[in-house]
Amino acid sequence: MADRVENPQQLFQMLPKGNLFSWNSMITKYVTDGKIDDAAYLFDRMPQRNVVSWTSMISGFCQHGLLDDARQLFDKMPERDVIAWNSMITGYAKNGRMEDARLLFDEMPERDMVTWNSMIRRYMQCGSVEDASELFEKMPHRDMTSWNSMIVGYCQNGKIEDARHMFDEMPQRNVVSWTAMLTAYNQLGNIEDALQLFDKMPKRNVVSWTAMISGYTQRGRMEDAQQLFDKMPVRNVVSWNAMIAGYAREGKMLEAQRLFDKMSGRDVVSWTSMISGYAQSGKMDDARALFDRIQRHDVIAWNAIIAGYTQNGQGQASLTMFSKMLGAGMKPDLSTLVTILSASASLAALQQGKQVHKHIISSGLMSNSSLGNAIVTMYAKCGSIEDARKSFNRIHEPNLVSWNAMISGYAQHGLGSEALEVFEQMQQTGTKPDHITFVGGLSGCSHAGLVDKGFQYFELMTNSYGIQPAAEHYACMVDLLGRSGYLDEAKDVIIKMPFEPDAVVWVSLLGACRVHGNTELAKWAAEHLVELQPQDATPYVLLSNIYAAAGRWDDVAKVRKLMKDGGVEKEPGCSWIEIKSKVHSFLVGDRSHPQTEEIYATLERLAGSMEKAGYVPDTNVL
Questions:
Q1: What is d(CA 439, CA 584) in angstroms, rounded to the nearest whole number?
Q2: Using only C-alpha atoms, what is the Rg of the chain?
Q3: What are the C-alpha distances in Å from 149 to residues 118, 123, 146, 185, 343?
Q4: Interatomic CA distance for residues 307 and 313, integer angstroms
Q5: 175 within 8 A of 204, measured Cβ to Cβ
Q6: 315-327 helix and 299-311 helix, angle to the nearest 10 degrees
Q7: What is the pTM of this model?
């Protein structure tokens, strides 16, 4: 009847006055459909009520987070049964008000097993392990659910030894008990302990088999997983998905595709695992082909393809897919927005990033820290450092990622003093810096020319925070010394590194040599860089430019010959510009743009104007 009558007032007129069952049914229907106001309207006009009427409304209010309304109704009840008490207690517990739930629990005249087990389960979910344990010990009687609630709760809170002790003490165990322990061991990486339990299980169900398979796949042991999968008496979609996701994570897409093709009933996880797997392997054409085969795209599928394009450096494709997602009427979620902000940042697409920012504001999501951090990073990478700082200031409680985004943003813009100021502010809040923080801080010192301060931070990192310097920290120190002209000291830092320098370190030294014209040290750095990356044109180009600046043209010719003989080719330069939320990309010598003729004509006019203004090109960089 409620399906046919939308207006609760009309329904009120139609309901038979003496039929209590009909009234309760309609109230339950409204509550189930989320129409709590309509349910309340009918409840207030009931000619008579029983405990079912009261309990239905209390449960409805609790489900919608209206706990005060539920409590007022509970207090007015002429009679209460155990179901009414459980409804109110569960409402408090589900909404995180465990103190109120416990007060009501203690007042309860008679408790059933549901009451005890519900309280224990909720305490565990809130991380209140001691309170759960206290109640468990006080229970007059325990059933299988009581024991399993404790085991699952201990496992969820990382107390695997307590869970195992409880498991061993159980008078009887069912498949839930075994599977809970099995899953916990797998999640902690104790695969051998999990296997021992699995072998001892008197009865196994599809969940047990899948838990063991997932343990293998999460550790990359795909051969063991496949053997177990082949032995499974019954498989469900979760079993298939565990195998597909495992192969995809390992980059074994042929095996993943083989299983995917055999599946009879695929769900969204099956499709997105394959899409993400192809994306991680850099095969975006295959990922897109799968995406296009999905009959009905949900937000998870859209997120998988958008994230794939972003991870593979195809930011423009990400923005295009995002536009299609909105055009299809799909509402982006938190993951979508964080990813698309990252894509906007990678393209320096400021206008697109601003549009996403506006969407976040209108959606009321600005309080989310992940989005706030992504917005700061986006503005910083798009060159709008002032907007980055404004966005940072709006974050109510900046976390480590927030501080790192702002410090790195200032450092990337060459604003060393500002980066160091934020670094100091972060320390004053008591936030503990990590290795990323120190990369930003050291980079800030480099841009500000603060050599002594840089060494202080370098020592602070190890002595005060126990962070061992990585290659990027040494690269910052080399850059810091090199920019300030201390090339011999920079070389000394490299020689004393506790591990082999990577390409970033050598490039930092080469850049400093170019600025200060130190050809011999540049040659030494370039030789090491070529050993690491023989097909990378960077060391050849940098060394060639250094020789050119010194007028050593014979050496320039030798470097170019080395490149030619080694088959090393310089990647063409690429630039892009955003106009009216559309990103236009250009390569050196590129004539594929539809407005090529106008662009080159404009470039010629600009070149002429620059020459008339007295501009002389720098031929030291070739």
A1: 32
A2: 32
A3: 9, 10, 5, 17, 43
A4: 10
A5: yes
A6: 160
A7: 0.67
